[in-house]
Amino acid sequence: MTINFRLNGNDTSVELAVNKRVVDLLREDLQLTGTKEGCSIGECGACTIIVNSKAVNSCMLLAQQLEGCDVITVEGLSDGEKLHKLQENFLKYGGIQCGFCTPGMLMSAYALFLENPKPTVDDIKTAIEGNLCRCTGYKPIIEAISASANS
Amino acid sequence: MTRKLIKSVINIENKEHEFIGEVSLLEQETWGKNDTLKIIGKEISRIDAVDKISGTASYTSDINLPGQLYGKFLRSPYPSAKILKIDLSKANALKGVKHILTYENTAKYKWYYETSFLLDPIVRYEGDEVAFVAAESEEIAEEALKLISIEYAKLPFVVDTEKASTEKNIKVHNWGNIVEPSEYKRGNIETGFADADFTIEDEFRTSVVLHNPTEPHCSVVNWDNDELVIYDSTQAVYQIRELAANALGIEQEKVRVIKKYMGGGFGSKLDLGKYTIAAAIVSRELKKPVKVVMDRKEQNLCVGNRPDSIQKFKVGIKKEGLLTALQLNSMGTVGAFPEGAGLSWPAKTMYKCPNLLVNEKSILTNAGAARAFRAPGHVQGIFGLESLMDECAAKLNMNPLEFRLKNYTEVDPVSNQPYTSKKLKEAYKKAADLIGWEDWKAAGSSKSVNRIGLGMASQIWWGGGGPPAHANIKLDKKGNITIYSGTQDLGTGTYTFIAMVASEVLQIPIERFNVVIGDTKLCPYAPVSGGSMTAPSVSPAVRDAAERLKEKLMDTAAILFDEEKNSIKYSNGFCVNSDGSKKVSLSEIAGHLNEQDLLIKGSRNENPKGYAINTFGAQFAKVEVDTLTGKVTVLKISASYDIGRVLNKLTLDNQIRGGIIMGLGYALMEERIIDENFGKVLTTNLHTYKIPTMMDIPEIVIEIASDYDPMISNTGVKGVGEPAIIPTAAAIANAVNNALGVRIKSLPITPDKVLIALYVSK
Known about the structure:
- The complex is a heterodimer of chains A (151) and B (762).
- By secondary structure, chain A is α+β, with helices and mostly antiparallel strands.
- Helix content of chain A is 33%, strand content 15%.
- Chain A has a five-stranded mixed beta sheet, covered by helices on one side.
- With 762 residues, chain B is an alpha+beta fold.
- Chain B is globular.
- At the A-B interface, helix 2, helix 3, helix 4 and helix 5 of A face helix 1 and helix 16 of B.
């Protein structure tokens, strides 16, 4: 089947099998490997992307469900060479260690800002709780998101 | 001669390894304190961070080669069985299935220290490899697994550690269930107990826990003519090269292992995976690349774990607080294949205790094999020992910190050698001040519903690193500088510190350095990234290389200026002549050289002889326990360490915080649970196997007690990755005891255990 959707601001049309997951569409067909797959069952948040302004686990969504949707992945976060303020603050506060959870963290934070531009630390923790990190101890991630909220 | 070959012995992940390799003989004085340095010790953003935040960083699981096949293992659903019959006909008939390996059609590649094979007709745990399918897509491979028909004869199994240790009839291997029992004696244990005013006997237990790095284990394998190229999510490119070559019976020089970025490892990615070799066999046969990525269930069944422990202690103490004797009998399960579950190094080395007797056993059970997991042995051992030390202090009505200081040792109690540096007293003081230890009261002082408690624990680990470790530095004719080292970055910041060290020496910005690591073909040897030895081994080699390059630049400038070399000054990337009239930049010098590029090898020095090299530290915890629900909330952890010199404050703090949070998981929630009736693991995903989330984190304050180690190397760096997790669970457990007046003696401290302990104590 063919589906049409917007991906990182571009109209996109792809031919795909009905059982293809979004994470596979992105990573394999479209070679957007910034979106990571950590658990395949919606528990780790590494594959988080934004669909119609909401953070979703792309391993839990069939690609055909994207028909007509507006999709943003980590590759669409920066404006060309110019990093998004979230990315800048992840850099500054050291919100990155191995980096595997980072794209998902960024997308969950971005979705939070779309809904609530001035989140408190508790709002941030609640929004990002589903994104697991095994390296950083989370603090610099919270700081980076917090700083982005206040800028 | 500025180099020589030596033999050295280094403890990596609780095992002694002997190395023969070249060391640098250049006498480079250790730098002064970090406040005298330009970049070392500062908070520097990772040089690889932009790649990671923009989604362009290429992890092994992101690599796709043209025409690649996808591999998947069929795994045993039973904890113990014999394969009677394999029927591949339906699976082979599925379109897109290209090859299936089983024990019947595959050579007997020895595995698990020659106790089993890559594919073995006997399966010994749920998840053991039965068949390997290679297909045109991952979906087809998964579909094919369902079409393979296996007839098993189920065999009796044992999954409980204690039961397996005494079981006579059910044997995991025909030679038994006990691996390498070991004994250690110091002084005379009987005399020691006779000298004591009090003796205490106690038992502590910990659970099996799972590494769960965020990136699953994976390999992409391809034969390029007769060269085997392995992209692997590994902590040890050179070790994987050696193990893969040995497994396949080919020359190491015919194997190239590459790993650029990886999503964590924590010890579980130190070993060669069966998936890598199965992929290599199929790839060789079909002349196509093969990619294998494990799923989360496989992660939780088959790629290692931290053994559990049952630690039985007897300790003798004098009224004034001195330890006279310590006896430890311990066991832990290593799963279905030989590994080590030893945990006695803290008991042997943390305190001055003249009389010691230790007996340890590693027990086989029908479960996934253990692997090194961030400070193997020490995390379990410190929990037992430091819980016991608190009990000793309580017996004497003594402050737990005071008790530990009374038994402080200035020499390594096993070797009787002095330490190259030990700033544990300073670490105790800093961490105590940061938590507000002056408020400490005896356990059980609070009777309110929500009770606050304070606790502490000490830490010891190796982490001095050592040779051989090399780094090449290359200056090309355009002045670009590239540093190559066969080390790897688990996410810990290896790329960044390499550039920082070179930048400090050559006095030019870190952006000028291109760092290439994790490639056995391009990079000279460096050790595995385990045992907290990456920074202490590699940073001195990088400095050595950069210093040698600086010398060479000054030599060249002397020729260009037609002056004596000792009149040339080097400053901020320029060589200046004696009267300051001539100045030439590093790039200009490179352009003058009639060599294509300048390639210089740097090496780590030999460790000083006659000294023990260890890291030390302490963590203090403040917890709140809800006595109605049994929930433990960690409010604050303070941490202070002697880890030698801090290279990068930003990545250091990340490492320590990450270790503490992993330790918090170990203390309060992480546990692999096996159903004893069926021998199946119940915690195979991240919903049932709980790791800490953002909601679980306490306030964490960190202060480093050391400036640098004055003896071990030209950078004075010791490792921090493992020290970070070692004391956390013990500190939390001691704080819980302090809050409740009741000790929970097994990890994890879950609400049910708290409620039962409170009920029993009434």
